Amino acid sequence: MFANESGYSFSHILTSRQRSGEDGGQCAREVVSASIGRSAHGGGAFSSYTSASDNFHFFAILRDLKTSEPALNGRQRALLDRVARDGFATIEDLAAQFQVTPQTIRRDVNWLADQNLLRRYHGGASALTSSENTAYTARQQMYLDEKRRIARLVASEIPNQATLFINLGTTTEEVARALCQHTGLRVITNNLNVANILADESDAELLVAGGKVRARDKGVVGEQAVDFIRMFKVDFGIIGISSIEEDGTLRDFDIAEVRVAQAIIEQSRTVFLVADHSKFGRAALVKLGHLSQIDALFTDAPPPEWMAESLAAADIAIRVAQ
């Protein structure tokens, strides 16, 4: 059971071990039947946290958490890095860099544009604008090895029996996978993918925030989710990010997602930021916070030299996953 500072207790929402005779539908229904009530100290009856009308939608989304997309090859990954760094690159320059034909580069650019990873123009390709994020299913495959290394390093610093927030993001989902061998974790999340991972593979006790479910990435956002997060104080908050600017500003693309992440930072005793190397210097629209609010940054490569001053000023621990 989780207890908040107002004397409320929250029923066990979801466990990874389905009891004998239960099917997957029963497991999913447990997620949408969260109850809130007074603890033994406060008295009172339990009341439904999620309305019955929301249950079918929530259940339907939870059933469809698995997606599959073709992984990027090494050339395509390097091409994305080049376009992200320079903003624009011509087909001819890319063909010369990778020592392949222009036709091969055009095929790569066309495919990457179809995946919403860059913008295709006559004669070249450009990075997405600061108001556009890469498609979620594509992000699941980008820098996957790097994200898994980051996740293993984060998991090594989380003790058994800890309480955690885990928010939206493909890197935080890899952290959830890396935590599956831990015991006695209590996890609060607004990410249905995280809930699904831990429910299937761990003995963690889970609480899932209520609110609006985004079909594209199974994230739960909105004022209800923010209010839910603010009821708790946990040992560790694990958050992802879309952009880390040179001055240490943290940015993302969606204001509703940012508000939940801000609440997680406020309600965590220790905040871990997980971000692969592509997030440094990337453009994004909405300010989330600053590196000075973070206790440790977990990444897959040493931060660029131009980040040295802001990292030093933020007094943040840097953990590089090898």
TrEMBL record:
Record-linked Gene3D superfamilies: 4-hydroxybutyrate coenzyme like domains (3.30.750.70), Winged helix-like DNA-binding domain superfamily/Winged helix DNA-binding domain (1.10.10.10)
GO molecular function terms listed in the Swiss-Prot or TrEMBL record: DNA binding; DNA-binding transcription factor activity
Xref: PROSITE patterns: HTH_DEOR_1 (PS00894), HTH_DEOR_2 (PS51000)
InterPro entries tied to this protein: Carb_Metab_HTH_regulators, DeoR-like_C, DeoR_HTH, NagB/RpiA_transferase-like, Tscrpt_reg_HTH_DeoR_CS, WH-like_DNA-bd_sf, WH_DNA-bd_sf
Pfam family, one: DeoRC
Domain HTH deoR-type: 72-127
Record carries keyword DNA-binding: yes
Keyword Transcription regulation among record annotations: yes
PANTHER family xref list: GLYCEROL-3-PHOSPHATE REGULON REPRESSOR, HTH-TYPE TRANSCRIPTIONAL REGULATOR SRLR-RELATED
Species: Caballeronia fortuita
Keywords recorded for this protein, A-Z: DNA-binding, Repressor, Transcription, Transcription regulation
Source superkingdom: Bacteria
Protein name: DeoR family glycerol-3-phosphate regulon repressor
